[in-house]
Design a protein that fits this description.
The structure is a single chain. With 263 residues, the chain is mainly α. Among the domains are: 1-15 and 45-107, Tetratricopeptide repeat domain (Serine Threonine Protein Phosphatase 5, Tetratricopeptide repeat), CATH 1.25.40; 212-263, no CATH class. Helices cover 83% and strands 0% of the residues. The longest helix is centred in the first third of the chain and has 28 residues, at 28-55. The chain is elongated and about 75 Å long.
Length: 263
């Protein structure tokens, strides 16, 4: 908690000085506003330090700092949210849930808190709760890509492929460059056994990014094993080798090229 003590020792005298100066020259409302501004600055300093700890892998330090800060500033939704995120990554699900719920109690429009509650529910295999939270996040931010992707992924988990496709296509409509959505659309078609539509989806990916070797690899496999077009499969295997050059993926593609050549 050295970081927390450092912030307090530097910032609290400023609070006293400002309060003294304002009380002699300004109404109580202005004093309150300035106190709130300084408190917000302190909270932001704490969040920044916690994020530095988190980025450096010092999750325990971040949790300790944010927990104490949230106790001292219990009306800060941002502190509770940051604490919830670190606890979620640390797999302390009960404490993370409590932090996110406190975030929402303070700020009912905090879409990120709903999204993370949905992710938490996925981890604890509460799929109904996950769907509820993702849906609430989308109600607050209808065009939010992350929320739509998570909800569509949840539909895949539940075997609701048409709903998943609808979700991924909605992402693409708003963000035509979202490769993640395109890959997942292709995977949905594969789940349904719709080989031609899957191939079309992968073709759209390589048209957008000719170096997308994973899409080339999927196309090669589809044309070789499902669509019975080995000559097109060869083309995509060559594109994999051309893009990746070395490593297990390139080696596997070379072996496939040799086997197709023998047939």
């Amino acid at each position: 908690m050295a970081a927390m003590r450092m912030i307090s020792s530097v910032s609290l005298p400023i609070l006293v000085i400002i309060a003294t100066l304002i009380s002699a020259t300004a109404p109580a409302q202005e004093e309150s506003e300035d106190r709130g501004l300084v408190a917000a600055q302190i909270v932001q300093q704490i969040r920044d330090i916690a994020k530095t700890h988190f980025a450096a892998g010092r999750r325990n330090k971040a949790i300790e700092l944010l927990s104490e800060a949230a106790g001292e500033h219990p009306s800060s939704a941002d502190l509770w949210f940051d604490l919830g995120v670190v606890l979620l990554v640390d797999r302390n699900y009960d404490a993370a849930r409590d932090a996110f719920q406190k975030t929402i109690a303070l700020n009912p429009s905090h879409a990120d808190a709903y999204l993370n509650l949905g992710v938490l529910a996925l981890h604890t295999k509460d799929l109904d709760r996950a769907e509820e939270m993702f849906t609430k996040a989308l109600a607050l931010k209808p065009d939010w890509v992350h929320a739509r992707l998570n909800l569509a992924g949840l539909h895949v988990k539940r075997g609701k492929i048409p709903e998943a496709l609808q979700g991924y296509k909605a992402v693409l409509a708003a963000n035509p460059g979202c490769t993640v959505a395109r890959f997942n659309i292709a995977q949905c078609y594969l789940e349904n056994g719709d080989w031609n539509s899957a191939a079309e989806a992968y073709r759209e990916i390589v048209q957008q990014d000719p170096g997308a070797f994973r899409a080339h690899l999927e196309l090669a496999s589809l044309y070789r094993t499902r669509l019975n077009k080995p000559e097109i499969a060869l083309y995509h295997y060559y594109k994999v080798v051309e893009t990746v050059k070395t490593g297990p993926v390139a080696e596997s593609a070379r072996k496939a090229i040799e086997q197709i050549g023998k047939n």
